[in-house]
Design a protein that fits this description.
single chain, 345 residues, Rossmann fold, 2 domains, six-stranded parallel sheet, globular
């Protein structure tokens, strides 16, 4: 099969390798569409595995069952599946408390082999887990694949309880930032402000419910947020980007007793300077968000396939696996919002 192997930072090679093996209760998934995520870009452009190469990344996966193991009865050849990238044990203390995203025994496909390939193995622990769903025949793979990025956005805003009447500031107008804007409006936010350094992305973010845009390279974003909120700051600020400076600045955009979310990861080893005195005296709540629990995974899948969120608006390009590195550059440079990869293209 064809696969995109990472040999180091920015060293991605398209090669022919054997199809992955799977156990008796597992299956082989033909990857139909895989989304390119900001975390993929960060992993593929830095020494993410500290020399442990080659490796295949990719976690926003939908596909068709190509083969099944002799003891696999849950799915059949031809089934169209959304495969959430992580599988919790449902037995540890975190899982039992409803925090399966923090599972002590969490397993992830892309720790073994991700989806930037024509085929991906789904072992028995995935098949028998809680996070695989059949895609209705009338829902295109290009739509269903957005279930994964939505799941984390949905979980984040449910956990911090974004609600009617609030002002929400989002720092970072990539696909995740735009999705945060749309979900915040669906949850009743009165005003959504987008902060970004790329004018093209700022303009595009207006398609997702953003009321005001701020280019932080051209004006003081902190002062502008205060101006738009009567001097107080926003009830909720979500930093959805890989910049430590943006994280530092976001602290001053939050009103007293408001909530600041660190949603986007930064390059490994980078540290953010935070004014803890300001946080202390303003009684700001800090929330680090990652992942989603099993109920939130299902709710996000249902939302996408229902069409309540129009996933088509997020798609900038659909590209073949051969062009993965080009796709990375397009998204990294702000020339595309969301790129989908079709290995069979």
């Amino acid at each position: 099969m064809k696969a995109a192997l990472m040999y180091g930072a920015n060293d991605i090679r398209i090669e022919d390798i054997p199809k992955p093996e799977y156990d008796q209760e597992g299956l082989l998934l033909k990857v139909e569409v895989i989304g390119l995520c900001g975390s993929d870009i960060r992993n593929l452009t830095t020494d993410s595995r500290k020399g442990d190469y080659p490796h295949i990344y990719g976690h926003e996966v939908v596909g068709t069952v190509a083969e099944v193991g002799a003891a696999c009865t849950k799915f059949a050849v031809g089934d169209r599946l959304y495969v959430y990238p992580a599988v919790p044990c449902l037995e540890c203390e975190y899982c039992r408390a409803g925090n399966s995203h923090s599972c002590k025994n969490l397993k992830a496909y892309d720790r073994i082999q991700g989806g930037f390939a024509e085929y991906m193995a789904v072992p028995s622990w995935g098949v028998n887990g809680p996070n695989i769903y059949k895609i209705p025949d009338d829902v295109p793979f290009e739509i269903a694949v957005f279930s994964e990025p939505l799941s984390s956005v949905y979980a984040c805003q449910e956990n911090i309880d974004v609600k009617m009447g609030q002002t929400v500031v989002i720092v970072g107008a990539g696909p995740i930032g735009c999705m945060h804007a749309e979900v915040a409006k669906l949850r009743g936010a009165n005003q959504v402000i987008m902060v970004e350094i790329n004018d093209e992305r700022l303009q595009e973010s207006k398609n997702f419910g953003v009321d005001y845009t701020i280019n932080s390279l051209k004006e003081d974003a902190i002062e502008k947020v205060k101006e738009l909120t009567g001097g107080s700051g926003a009830e909720v600020v979500i930093s959805a980007n890989p910049s430590t400076k943006a994280q530092s600045d976001a602290v001053y955009m939050v009103r007293a007793n408001g909530t600041l979310v660190f949603f986007g990861g930064v390059p490994k080893g980078s540290l953010t300077e935070i004014d803890t005195n300001h946080i202390h005296y303003q009684s700001i709540w800090i929330y680090g968000h990652y992942g989603s629990n099993t109920l939130q995974v299902k709710a996000s899948f249902d939302t996408i396939i229902s069409g309540r969120i129009d996933a088509r608006k997020y798609i900038s390009k659909v590209m073949p696996l051969d062009d993965l590195f080009e796709a990375i550059q397009l998204m990294k440079n702000g020339k595309a919002n969301k790129v989908l990869i079709k290995p069979g293209m």
